[in-house]
Design brief:
The chain is an alpha+beta fold. It has 24 helices and 18 strands. Strands 1, 2, 5, 6, 7 and 8 form a six-stranded mixed beta sheet that branches. Strands 13-9-15-18 form a four-stranded antiparallel beta sheet, covered by helices on one side. A hairpin with a 5-residue loop joins strand 11 and strand 12. Helix 6 packs parallel to helix 15 and helix 12 packs parallel to helix 16. The radius of gyration is 27 Å and the shape is globular.
Length: 713
């Protein structure tokens, strides 16, 4: 039979598959030992004791890299370059590059970064190559900026792009190359990257935050934002991945019938990683490589959907954490094939099972370590009872005023399929504070200032040998877009493939704006308590502690006037709204041309993504689905043949539209309505077509690694 022939062919391939996977598997042992990795932790990142050894040999004090001063002193920069060169060559590196982050890269650009790798050598007077790296080479670079997404900020005849080292992030080494984190700007100083606006937003929050705190009687050395990012991914068999054009080229399945089993039993969530597939070995190798470059990728576990996993690091400064997350994503994609796997970082690779997010846990702290979102810590260190309530009031007011920007920041193409789908909050931007915190702020706005005392409760397990548990009275609200979790806010709707720089640029900027508004009123003679109470009264509507998935609650929040933007395209186009241009300009984060250019690039990115998906669907219909259904004499044949023309006609309409926002919404309609309707027909046909005629890997082939993988050794 055809099935027995397929099995025979599969068995013939098995020894080769086993041999190739064994050959590609790294030499590290399965279940690597944590002590061994702790000993080598950070050996390939130029910071701390690793850097100090080489810096001291050049006559520089330890801690030189903790300040940006060395980048402004040519003599010191030359010494740092000498130290970096010696460290690099001692570790087998012979190339360097400035590593930067072009915008509109999420989901399409491998590594989400740009770089040109140059060997660091020159020829001496006798024509012999010698190692060479000068301070000026380390600090600044130049490249062609015309072919990156730029939204009209650059052109082929004005193509210069300039790179400047980011001293807040660390140089690292991988393979034979050292990577120098850098900002990327045009000849006219316009930001062409994700990092430059982020650093500007950090400056804005530091400037306005220290000003506010000082006016309230608390002088701090500086402020910074800290984040922790939870990275979700799918791992699927690579041999099936390369047989799916949609997964290869777009990262998601544009067609595919649900398997008989999905996530309905919740059996995958936090289940033990199985040794019957290479997934655990793959994750261990990812962690090992991350440890070497100083990335504290501490947590790994299974997620809700089959073949879905998560990594999470420890908290860190916003610029370092974003750089590290981008490195993590690249390592994930490069390590997976070594284990016969493909890693999917797109937000919604599969229909009707959970997609992947990247929860952005955000907080604000003084540079000497006091977390402004930790009520007890703030009150104790500042000595000011109403300090915490004032800070929270500024943040809450920012969420209410600029929820459109928060929605814009998560408007990635893949998030179209996640928001409000019981895996990410809906596109209504409210904040959850919990009943205790809400009651505390309610008292505060009504003139009752008292210490915040969160209630606790005791859980008796009913087992004599186990002592009762003491837990917070507040539960987790996973339906809220921006819940307060005690010491941090969690921006839950962030997409898994995103560079989260814009997300945190927005959070930092709206918080800086809140601090500025408060400081301006205090300087004009108002009391801090009155300013904060007034802000809470004006913006109380954005606080919601209930179920955001409930349709009645969604209608209530919409009626209340909380920001709701269902269309990702409309959210992106809010970037050019007058109030938002004014906000970013006043905070010196983005100029008007930069806002408009970024909007254009994000719309182009969305439209381009839809076009790739649509063309993949056309190819899969013509080359796989229609021939299979024709051979099976399926009833869907005529509808499928007509679908090809429908898609082409819709794409032509997208191409013909000149208005940016209208073009984007036409693409959105094609994707979320036209292609979804066609998918329903295809998936019905798949369910009725004999397996021996269906030439595309099914969800059963793709999603059940533990059950499908052949004798992993």
């Amino acid at each position: 039979t055809e099935n027995s022939k397929s099995m025979s062919r599969l068995l013939q391939r098995t020894p080769l598959l086993r041999a190739s996977r064994q050959a590609l598997r790294p030499t590290s042992a399965r279940f690597f030992s944590t002590p061994a990795n702790i000993e080598g932790y950070g050996k390939n990142v130029f910071k701390g004791t690793v850097a100090d050894e080489y810096l001291s040999a050049e006559g520089l004090p330890s801690g030189t890299l903790n300040s940006s001063a060395w980048t402004q002193d040519p003599a010191a920069a030359d010494k740092v370059a000498d130290a970096v060169l010696k460290w690099a060559t001692d570790n087998g590196a012979t190339f360097f590059c400035h590593w930067f982050q072009p915008f509109a890269s999420s989901g399409v650009r491998h590594g989400l970064s740009g770089q040109v790798q140059n060997a660091f050598f020159k020829f001496d007077g006798e024509g012999k190559p010698v190692w060479d790296l000068k301070g000026k080479d380390l600090i600044q670079g130049e490249t062609d900026g015309s072919s990156y997404p730029n939204g009209g900020l650059r052109a082929t005849h004005t193509a210069g792009g300039y790179l400047k080292v980011d001293p807040t992030s660390h140089i690292w080494l991988r393979g034979d190359t050292i990577f120098i984190p850098a900002c990327f700007v045009s000849y006219y100083g316009h930001a062409l990257d994700e990092k430059t606006p982020l650093l500007r937003s950090v400056d804005a929050m530091n400037r306005e935050g220290t000003r506010l705190l000082s006016l309230m009687g608390w002088d701090v050395p500086g402020l910074q934002s800290n984040i922790g990012l939870e990275q979700e991914i799918f791992l699927i068999p690579r041999e099936e991945f390369i047989r799916r054009p949609d997964l290869q080229l777009t990262g998601r399945t544009v067609i595919g019938k649900d398997a008989p089993r999905g996530q309905e039993m919740c059996d995958h969530y936090m289940a033990p990683p199985s040794t019957t597939s290479p997934a655990l070995d793959c994750m261990a190798e990812i962690q090992r490589q991350c440890f070497e470059v100083g990335i504290p990728l501490r947590t790994r576990h299974r997620e809700v959907a089959p073949n879905q996993y998560e990594f999470a690091p420890l908290f860190g400064s916003v610029t370092t954490q974003i750089d590290q997350n981008i490195i993590v994503m690249q390592i994930i994609e490069e390590v997976a094939p070594q284990y016969g796997l493909a890693a999917l970082l797109q937000e919604k690779p599969f229909n009707n099972v959970n997609g992947s997010g990247k929860h952005n846990n955000w907080s604000v702290a003084t540079t000497d370590g006091c977390n402004l979102l930790n009520v007890n810590q703030v009150t104790e260190v500042s000595g000011i009872p109403h300090m915490f309530a004032t800070i929270m009031s500024a943040i809450v007011s920012g969420v209410d005023m600029h929820g459109d920007l928060m929605r814009m920041a998560i408007a990635s193409p893949g998030n179209d399929f996640r928001l409000g789908a019981c895996e990410a909050p809906p596109a209504i931007v409210s904040t959850y504070l919990g009943e205790d915190m809400t009651a505390y702020l309610d008292d505060f706005r009504n003139g009752k200032v008292h210490p915040y005392q969160p209630t606790l409760k005791e859980l008796d397990l009913g087992v004599s040998c186990i002592a009762p548990l003491t837990v917070p009275a507040e539960d987790r609200n996973r339906t809220s877009p921006f819940p307060y979790g005690g010491h941090r806010f969690e921006f839950r709707a962030v997409g898994s493939s995103q560079n989260v720089s814009m997300v945190n640029t927005v959070l930092n900027t709206i918080t800086a704006d809140g601090f500025k508004r408060f400081a301006d009123k205090i300087e004009a003679g108002a009391s801090p308590q009155d300013v904060a109470a007034e802000a809470l009264n004006d913006h109380w509507k954005v606080i919601f502690n209930g179920d955001n998935y409930d349709e009645a609650n969604q209608a209530m929040l919409t009626e209340r006037g909380v920001w709701r933007i269902d269309s990702g395209i409309d959210a992106i186009c809010s970037l050019s709204a007058d109030k938002n241009i004014e906000l970013f300009s006043d905070m010196n984060v983005l100029s008007e041309p930069e806002c408009k250019a970024r909007q254009t690039c994000l719309v182009d990115h969305y439209v381009g993504t839809v076009e790739m998906e649509a063309l993949c669907l056309v190819d899969m219909l013509n080359q796989h689905v229609i021939p299979a259904v024709k051979a099976a004499e399926g009833k869907q044949l005529r509808d499928l043949q007509a679908a090809v023309g429908t898609i082409k006609h819709a794409l032509a309409a997208v191409h013909a539209e000149e208005d940016e926002q209208k073009k984007g919404n036409l693409a959105r309609t094609l994707r979320l309505e036209t292609m979804v309707a066609i998918r329903d027909v295809v998936d019905e046909a798949e369910g009725e077509t004999p397996a021996n005629l269906w030439t595309l890997p099914t969800y059963k082939d793709l999603l059940f690694l533990d059950h499908n993988y052949l004798a992993y050794e």
